[in-house]
Amino acid sequence: MKWAVFSLSQMPDQTRRVEAFDEDLDYFVKAEELGYDTVWLAEHLFSTYGVVTSTQVYAAAVAQRTKRIKIGTAVVAIPFNHPLRTASDFALIDILSHGRLLFGVGRAYQPHEFTGLGVPMAEAREMMDEGVDIVLDAWTKETVSRPDGSHWPIPDPVECLPKPLQQPHPPVYQASISPESFTQAAEKGFHLQLASPFTYRTYREIWVEKLEENLATYEAACKANGRDPKAAERMMLMPYFCHEDGAKAREIFGERVQWFYNKVASNQLSQTGTFEPVKGYELTMTEGLKTRELGYLNFEKLHEFGACIAGDPEECISRLRELRDRLGVTEFALWSTLGGLPIEHVEASMRITMEKVIPYV
Hints:
By secondary structure, this protein is α/β, with parallel strands linked by helices. Helix content is 47%, strand content 16%. The radius of gyration is 20 Å and the shape is globular.
């Protein structure tokens, strides 16, 4: 079992952006000092929902401040950059970190980001497929060319340098919510990134059962493609806060979790201020709207159905064990920095988790 920390670098108060980034980076250094295995980073645009605009830039900063801890992306939004640029940048990060990169990929999911960049959201899945293939070719082949590429034609062979340190390439993880994503990850041999915030928004109180179903689909697809279904890592992102007093944990964490879910729900609006399901996102967008309208984004509901964990060590142990056993989780990415939670609370949770939770899970 591996243990990680995650940050979306959420900064509701932009007047503190310098201090907040300093605290965020110190948080990663503290994670390494305490013995955590991985730092997972995310990128987002045009909202205080997350103000790291480039996981390339942030991963390089983390690489220079740490020595041992793995540096993962959760995720690189493949449709938002040319894949040859993505391949070159992350190969450089793998070198700068001395081979510590974990390459998590996704197609992105917030309409305002696609609109702002002028990228057609309805084509995100096919852009994801094509883009990841180009990145892997760039890393593993002397030259790469795709004269017939649909989104990024490469008419002449290009030598993409530098090559990554890890061979044949850094481990690739795929963000997986819809059944199609699980099948795709199995076919390509990718590790899995699971995330309770987004699976819960789609399936509400039966989110764990649906994950079990999707993982069964994944395992069947692995076998059909001649792969060991248990060989891949299963990382799970979980909003999480531990305190000696369980009631105090929920009091401290609840308002921050609520801020996050309100923000992600509003960011699903189109530029006209309405919900308009996009091709390829019909399930998550439609069900996400129902989840909000039915009141399931209330913190009490989120906690009741285990989409976030906020409690004393005993409760945290119980909930993490259940998810580990039911879903075969191999790494928990514990997320305590939601909504700009003060760093003193974050670090206290990290310490108590390392001392009183992790040894028992």
